[in-house]
C-alpha cells in the first residue's frame, strides 16, 4: 500500500504558491488502484487558483473517467497543518465511496489523522 502522506509531501514541494505561501500537496488512490498527485497552483486572480486536492481529483477523472471513485486521499501543507477546505471537501464528496466511506488523512499535532468523508462533510450538498 503506497504511503500517500509521503507522496503528498513530495508533490507539495512543487506547489506554485507565491501569494499565500501555503504549499499544498495531495495524493489519492482510486478504487481501481490508480495513484494521482496534485499540488496547488495559485494565480494573481485568486478565483483562478486551484487547490492540490482538486488538482489530483481532476487528474484522476481525466485518466479513469467519470465513474472514478476515491478509496483514500492524503493532503499535506508544508509548515502548516489543517484538513481540506470546504470547496475541496465538496468535490471530494462527489467522487467519494458510497455513504462517505472514503478515507482522508491529514496532519494534526504532527501526527496523521484519518477521517471519513462523512465525518468531514456530514451534510454534503447534492442534487
TrEMBL record:
Keyword Cell membrane set for record: no
Entry keywords, A to Z: Hydrolase, Metal-binding, Zinc
Pfam families: dCMP_cyt_deam_1
EC number: 3.5.4.5
Cofactors that this protein relies on: Zn(2+)
Enzyme class, UniProt record, top EC level: hydrolase
CDD domains listed in its UniProt record: cytidine_deaminase
Catalytic activity: cytidine + H2O + H(+) = uridine + NH4(+); 2'-deoxycytidine + H2O + H(+) = 2'-deoxyuridine + NH4(+)
Protein name per its UniProtKB record: Cytidine deaminase
Organism from which the protein derives: Prosthecobacter algae
Amino acid at each position: 500500500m503506497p504511503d500517500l502522506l509521503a507522496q503528498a509531501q513530495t508533490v507539495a514541494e512543487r506547489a506554485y504558491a507565491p501569494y499565500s505561501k501555503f504549499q499544498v500537496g495531495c495524493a489519492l488512490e482510486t478504487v481501481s488502484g490508480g495513484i494521482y498527485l496534485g499540488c496547488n497552483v495559485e494565480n494573481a486572480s485568486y478565483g483562478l487558483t486551484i487547490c492540490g486536492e482538486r488538482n489530483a481529483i481532476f487528474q484522476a477523472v481525466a485518466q479513469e473517467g467519470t465513474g472514478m471513485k476515491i478509496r483514500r486521499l492524503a493532503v499535506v501543507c508544508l509548515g502548516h497543518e489543517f484538513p481540506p477546505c470546504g470547496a475541496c471537501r465538496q468535490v471530494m464528496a462527489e467522487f467519494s465511496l458510497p455513504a462517505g466511506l472514503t478515507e482522508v488523512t491529514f496532519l494534526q499535532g504532527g501526527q496523521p489523522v484519518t477521517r471519513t468523508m462523512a465525518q468531514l462533510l456530514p451534510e454534503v450538498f447534492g442534487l
